[in-house]
Specification:
Elements: E1 3-4, E2 35-37, H1 39-52, E3 55-59, E4 69-73, E5 83-89, E6 97-102, H2 103-109, E7 112-120, E8 134-142, H3 145-152
Parallel strand pairs: 2-7, 3-6
Antiparallel strand pairs: 1-2, 3-4, 5-6, 7-8
């Protein structure tokens, strides 16, 4: 179960326990999305927003921070033509939290639905949650054929 980024699709059996939003009894939202967030991660994002103001995520492609979703004050990590906007997470704030990935990495991950979660332990990197003794991580599942076709038609606007 997850909180979708602007409309989600998929079955809850594919999603992590303790996530927000869609339940087995809920109708599926009309449009699939590429990224969602668990309740635990959404709570942490709300706390980080209280401290740092609006935040954003950029899905790291490796190196010193592995392939972790990195959380920054919105605008501190500059995005541009070399990045893909995966969606905006609804974490219960007035504005959605944008999630980005480099186009090169997106080519490898474009068949994947990503769920941002949080676990105990310190990650390696500059993400805002580091001093909290926790780290964001990605849980993933392969998109259904229907989700992939619907999302591919939108990627030009992402």
């Amino acid at each position: 179960m997850t909180t979708p980024a602007t409309g989600s699709a998929g079955t809850t059996s594919d999603l992590p326990d303790g996530a927000l939003g869609v339940t087995e009894d809920s109708p599926l939202p009309p449009e699939p999305v590429r990224v969602s967030v668990t309740e635990a991660a959404a709570e942490l994002v709300r706390r980080l927003t209280e401290t740092h103001g609006p935040v954003m995520f950029h899905q790291s492609g490796g190196c010193c921070d592995g392939s972790a979703p990195m959380c920054y004050p919105d605008g501190d990590f500059l995005t541009g033509d070399a990045d893909v906007h995966l969606g905006d997470l609804d974490v219960g704030l007035e504005r959605g939290v944008p999630v980005w990935m480099s186009k090169a990495q997106f080519e490898y991950w474009k068949h994947t639905h990503l769920t941002i979660d949080v676990v105990k332990g310190r990650g390696a990197g500059f993400s805002l949650e580091a001093p909290e003794g926790v780290r964001f991580l990605i849980r993933s599942r392969v998109l259904t054929d229907e989700e992939f076709v619907a999302l591919e038609s939108k990627i030009g606007s992402a």
